[in-house]
Amino acid sequence: MSFEQKGPASTSDFEADPRDLTYRRQQGTIRLLNSVRVGLTGLALLSGITILGTSANAIMVYNNTHVPSDFNLALWPDEFDLRPTVALVAGSSFVLLANLVSLIFSKTRVVSPIHSSISNRDIKVHELTHVPFLQLQNYTLAHTSVTFIAPFVGFVAALIGIAFFYAVNASTTVDTLQSWSCQWGYTDMTLEPHFGTLCQQSEVALYLAVILVPVEAITLMVAGVQMALERKSRAFVPAQKPSSPALS
């Protein structure tokens, strides 16, 4: 009986694919950036809700307590500018909507053949989804684009809102909701408008609107780096290894 001696095993069979290692490192960085972006988006969303709630409530109180100029005991001056508060309401509405869409798309996972072959090599692509390959690519492109466009819209809305606030609030003769309520904030009132409460609400909305601009700017930069890495990582996607033939 003769024995056929097998050659030594090649060390290349045990070496990791450099493209695979690069791809995995990039995916780790992308996941980290995505977590940072989602956290900043949540912070911006909460800030937008707070700004919208406080500013809209202040306008509602003004509308409920404003009386015509011929009234003997008017609580508000005749020359009054509501535009700064309206600017905060409009800007925070766009910020809220943009960040909400960004969070929804961040939680929506798009299954693609590329990621399926890397994370679950033993699972066939057609068992995960019946969507054609080109359609999946379009979904992935839309998902990546929205995660960048949404913080861009939020940043522009926050910047325009705060810029318009200070632009129309530059007058020294016409009072705004914040200046008038803070001027009479020391007054103890049992009924609306409660100038002290309105002053605090206006200041909170303004401070959060100022902070929201750099938050949205950082979110936009993180989203841009994440999108660039996702596009770059496509060049390092390892080829799927063919499955071994079944034993007869």
Describe the structure.
The protein is mainly alpha-helical and 248 residues long. The chain has one domain. It is 67% helix and 2% strand. The protein has a two-stranded parallel ribbon with strand order 1-2. Helix 1 runs antiparallel to helix 2 and helix 6 packs across helix 7. The longest helix is centred in the first third of the chain and has 48 residues. The radius of gyration is 29 Å and the shape is elongated. About 14% of the residues have low confidence.
Structure summary, number of beta strands: 2
The arrangement of helices and strands along the chain is HEHHHHEHH
Tally of individual domains: 1
Distance between the termini: 26 Å
Helix content: 55-70%
Shape: elongated
Residue runs with pLDDT of under 50 for 5 or more positions: 10-14, 110-138
Oligomer: single chain
Short description:
The protein contains seven helices and two strands, in the order H-E-H-H-H-H-E-H-H. The protein has a two-stranded parallel ribbon with strand order 1-2. The protein is an all-alpha fold and 248 residues long.
Characteristic key phrases:
2 strands, 2% strand, 248 residues, two-stranded parallel sheet, mainly alpha, elongated
Lay out the secondary structure.
Elements lengths: L17 H48 L14 E2 L1 H25 L5 H7 L5 H4 L4 H36 L6 E2 H7 L11 H39 L15
Parallel strand pairs: 1-2
Helix pairs in contact: 1-2, 1-7, 2-5, 5-7, 6-7
